[in-house]
Amino acid sequence: MKILNKLRRNTPAVRGGRYVADFTALNIRYTLRRSSGLAYRKTQSAYGLCAFFFRHIFAVAGNLRFPLSQPQKRRIAFTLGAIFLKFFEKGLTKIKVLLILNHKENILIKHFSYNAKETLAYNDFGNEKGFPILVQHGTMASIKDIGYFDELQKVARVICIARPGYGESSPYLLKDILEYGTIVSKLVETLSIKQFDIFSSSAGAPYGYAIAKECQNKARNIYVYSGTPALYDENIQKKWPFPVNKDIPVDISQQVAREVFFSNIPAPELEKDYIKDSMANNCFGEGQNIRLRFKDWGFNLSEVKAKVYMQHSKKDNVLSYNLAEMTKELLPNCELELLEEGEHFSDGGYKLFIKNTILRNLV
What we know:
alpha/beta
């Protein structure tokens, strides 16, 4: 009993010796921090944390010769809750019953094989019974950064795919952007997905369109946040504020990517997943974006039949909203929302797009 009393006193929820009888009103707050520096907060009731165990304990106790009164049940629940939370606080988060999905240690990267020796890394998480959403990341990103999808993963099955060269995906040389769509269509077939949505941001937008083109009967909606415009189109190329180079060698594209994106990264940032995965294979993935964007994509946006929900800020200083307007006109079924304020990309803006656009359509 001395040990149990010590645990009661030291448990964060009851520190100070305060006794709480009504467990449904007692909230335990805890914060998980990952090596990427992102913090996530979850709130659960102590009763909810232990209810699964208590339900079975009480069922057994009811058949014993010494029945438990309601106060005794509360005291047992309190004690077991304190013990459980004490172990939980020490980091035993791999307990299957309470798997915390947004803790880095619990992220399971899967691999899909194609073209005999190549692999595509993907992260499949969220609601297993929810509607599937294929996520196409932008520049400098990692499929391990699932904190962006806290709300989305509650109702949807989220599948984040690392393009060739990023993270654990093989540095496969794509002949055009459409070929990526062909590869992902095989993954969709393997996963037995009958219908899905696509969520693309920034440099991931062209690849999202390619998936929709190759999965015409399965791709329902495409959500595009600050997307790269249709740079294969000559009229849009004329409005591009920088030199247009359609024939960049692979090694040069990697060198350009390293100089543009990673030359001034502070040392602590280099250990974060979004940097490490983007620099993988000597910046192959980032270089491939640069190499392919001005070339013939292998298809035209007029061939994309899925409904497109596009959002762009008028103050985007990376990709002009005027190019987003021109891209919209190339798509058969597209709604463009122009924001008066906002950056090219921000954590808040990204999550707000999920909340106000994607979740609204899912519900």
